[in-house]
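Hi L.,

You mentioned the student needs an example of a multi-chain input paired with its predicted structure. This one should do, with 423 residues in total across all chains.
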Amino acid sequence: MMQSSPLNFRRAVIWIGRLLLAGIFIYAGYAKLTMGLHPRPAIGVALSFFALQVDSYQILPTWAVKVVANLLPFIEIGLGLLLLIGWKLRIWATLITIVMLGFFFAVVRSYAMGLQINCGCFATPEPLTIKTVLRDGALAALAVLMTIFAFQEAAKPHPWTARQNSRSA
Amino acid sequence: MPASEGGRYNGKKDHGQPGKTAFRVECVILGRFIQEDRVNRRRLIVSLFVLLASLELAVLTGSVSAGMPGQAPGVSDVDAYCAFGSKTAPLRMEVYSDFQCPACKQLFKTTNQPLMDNYVNTGKVYLIHRDFPLPMHAYSRVAASYARAAAHIGKFEVVEQALFQNQEKWEANGDVKGTVTAALSPAEMKKVQALVDGKTLEPLIDKDKQAGQLVPVNQTPTTVFHYKGQTYPYAGVMSYDILKQFLDQLLSQK
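Structure written out for the whole complex:
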């Protein structure tokens, strides 16, 4: 009986993943744009400060650092909102997973190299430690699981919530 | 038609048990929200407003722990011998550094000279060197003592360059004194040695460390930018191009 209920494990993971990852992405993007300062600095200041943090990872060339720093906060907010809304979930879940895996790679690489840097994840100056690596790893795993389940869900929707046109006569 | 065979729940079945029906309706609502392309837009818009308000609150609350205005030391705490540029420059930049730290060496090599040429010597930036010798480095305190002594005879830049350029050498053999001696004339070295032996400048290094703990500095190098009452702490190495972009953005703020 529980298998036929919409409240199964697969749906719970999608639900939790959507809420958690969307919240974190929106918060992270917003924090990067405001830097947690009052009064708020100009957006150019916030983005160029974030560019310093992207640069500290020593992965990208200067031009790419500027591109990433100028786009990432907006991408985070956009993806977070789209994930929260749930429209075309599979697309945004996949993109969020790619972004999360990218973050995880950057964090693991920097930790392994022993770089003494700040994470740059949110507005606060947070040193990159094993805690950061584990947190990003857990979120990346959640994103992967959510995406897989979203595809499974779309392939075999629950009968109660299936599309109108899927109704058999 | 059984639900498990692909039919759609129409809310008209199982009406025999009201409690069970209510539960099922709730399940359907939740299920529809989870299902893609089925979104209650009105509820969503309200949720977004609540979310934005929460974000604003969360970000502003977060700033309290971020080492923001009022926590960092002022210009009066600065050892003028280790500071460069005009005290009245609009932007103050404090670099917490450890002479034995490889990242500090990298930061010095990549940014120091162009920063001095384009911002410090042009009166835009007041650059302050702050000693933050880490306990994990055996000779960084000794190096800081020699650099501070050299600063007090007007030779900080020469000794700083010598210490960073020969970091691997003195890190391996502990011969900080030899590195400094090679960079100074015998007369200058004599004065520096006297200051180091007298230990009169040690409290200034301790003062820098205490100032760093207020920021708080967790790693070296940490650069703290002060502009119009705002403080921007940054840990790590940076390339000059990116630093320049940030400084220009700050200085262009009205």
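You could point out the following to them. Chain A touches chain B through 64 residues (CB under 8 Å). Residues 100 and 140 of chain A are 5 Å apart (CA to CA).

Best wishes,
N.
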